[in-house]
């Protein structure tokens, strides 16, 4: 990322929400209406592997978001923008699209970034 910015090259962030993991969607299990529940994806899905390998860090991410009372989705999107990464966001419903767009301009406390950098 540093070399891209020094060369004035833009960077796209694919799946900035880690297929919903960083939104908090799966904090209490898999919702019945989610794509993962509809398909038997957890047996081989990269998302499940990512989650299991990073569970402690993901849990800490949510603790930080909760301590500041901020939406985890907004934090993930704003994190990308702070790092000059342009997030490629997907949505499976109009409501998700509206939340993603709102996250682009979310106001977040400056102190949160220092805590997130430690994770």
TrEMBL record:
Listed GO MF terms: oxidoreductase activity
Domain of life: Bacteria
Entries under SUPFAM superfamilies matching the protein: NAD(P)-linked oxidoreductase
Pfam families linked to this entry: Aldo_ket_red
InterPro entries: AKR_Detox_Biosynth, NAD(P)_OxRdtase_dom_sf, NADP_OxRdtase_dom
Annotated NADP-dependent oxidoreductase domain residues: 8-119
Statement: the UniProt record of this protein carries the keyword Protease: no
Keywords carried by this UniProt record: Oxidoreductase
PANTHER family: NAD(P)-LINKED OXIDOREDUCTASE SUPERFAMILY PROTEIN (PTHR43364:SF4), NADH-SPECIFIC METHYLGLYOXAL REDUCTASE-RELATED (PTHR43364)
Name of the protein: Aldo/keto reductase
Species for this entry: uncultured bacterium Contig783
């Amino acid at each position: 990322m540093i070399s891209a910015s020094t060369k004035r090259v833009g960077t796209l962030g694919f799946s900035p929400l880690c297929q919903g993991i960083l939104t908090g969607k799966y904090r209490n299990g898999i919702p019945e209406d989610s794509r993962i529940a509809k398909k038997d994806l957890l047996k081989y899905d990269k998302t499940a592997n990512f989650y299991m390998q990073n569970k402690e860090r993901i849990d800490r991410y949510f603790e930080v978001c909760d301590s500041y009372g901020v939406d985890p989705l907004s934090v993930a999107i704003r994190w990308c923008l702070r790092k000059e990464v342009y997030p490629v966001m997907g949505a499976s419903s109009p409501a998700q699209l509206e939340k993603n767009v709102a996250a682009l301009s979310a106001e977040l406390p400056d102190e949160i970034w220092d805590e997130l950098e430690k994770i």
